[in-house]
Amino acid sequence: MNDYYVINLGRQLGSGGKEIGEKLAKDLGIAFYDKELINLASKESGLCKEFFEKADEKASQGLLGGLFGTRFPFITEGAYPYNSYLSNDSLFKIQSDVIRHLAEKQSCLFVGRCADYVLRDHPRCANVFVSASPQARIERLTKRLNISEEKAEEIMEKADKKRSSYYNYYSYNTWGAAATYHLCIDSSVLGIDRTVEFIKSFVKQKLQLP
Predict the structure, then answer these.
(1) Count of C-beta atoms within a 10 Å radius of residue 112
(2) At 104, is the pLDDT very low, low, confident or very high (cuts 50, 70, 90)?
(3) What are the Cα distances from residue 85, in Å, to 13, 31, 64, 90?
(4) Domains of the chain (ranges plus CATH)?
(5) What whole-number distance in Å separates Cα of residue 144 and Cα of residue 136?
(6) CA distance 103 to 109
(7) Residue 67 in this model has a pLDDT that exceeds 60
(8) Which of 181, 184, 189, 67 is nearest to 120 (CA)?
(9) Taking the alpha carbons of 129, 133, 134, 135 in that order, is the dihedral positive or negative?
(10) Residues 41/47/50/56 CA torsion (nearest 10 deg)
(11) Apex 106 CA angle, 122 and 22, nearest 5
(12) Which of 27, 31, 173, 185 has the fewest beta carbons closer than 10 A?
């Protein structure tokens, strides 16, 4: 049995989850995957990256309209039959296969994309959810995106709905609920860097890392 381990990190928009994940992965010396999974899934399947971008963290709606409701002449020959229909479910399966393959080859940290559910049978995993107070999230988004507080609240609400519906649909668990994860933490209490240190300490103890 190898010594590879995985950290699966769920996050609220504006909580600093991605930054926390990047710093944590760097501190631990493991691979970090967020949007990179889209490129890898595209290469693995021979499908255009645009398909995965449009379906990214969106729950299935059956066959989708637009690009997703048609047959694809863009599929690399031999990858999938030309008469295949692709739904978000199909793309989720491809991306899930990529996540599993990566976790078999190395220790890594995955941000979102139901990685905790996809890797639920992995023998060495730590599932973490990062939240933050509404005000802290708004402040981060207004600075990062140069938008008003009202616009930040609107974006937050939409992102929470999208991520929760995606996660709940594919995992049969509840996004953001304490019982779903090994650790839930509010990054606005300790700040980004101390949150990273707290999670790192927890992960090391849970997975018995040196």
Answers:
(1) 23
(2) very high
(3) 32, 33, 10, 9
(4) 6-207 (3.40.50.300)
(5) 12
(6) 9
(7) no
(8) 181
(9) negative
(10) -40
(11) 95
(12) 27
Closest CA to 51 of 99, 82, 87, 84: 87
End-to-end CA distance of the chain: 18
pTM: 0.84
Question: How confident is the model at residue 39, as a pLDDT?
Answer: 76
For tokens 């049978």, the residue is 121
Cβ-based neighbour number of residue 166 at 10 Å: 22
Q: Give the largest Cα separation in the chain, rounded.
A: 52
Least reliable range by pLDDT among 33-47, 93-107, 117-131: 33-47
**CA separation for the pair 135, 164 (Å, rounded):** 20
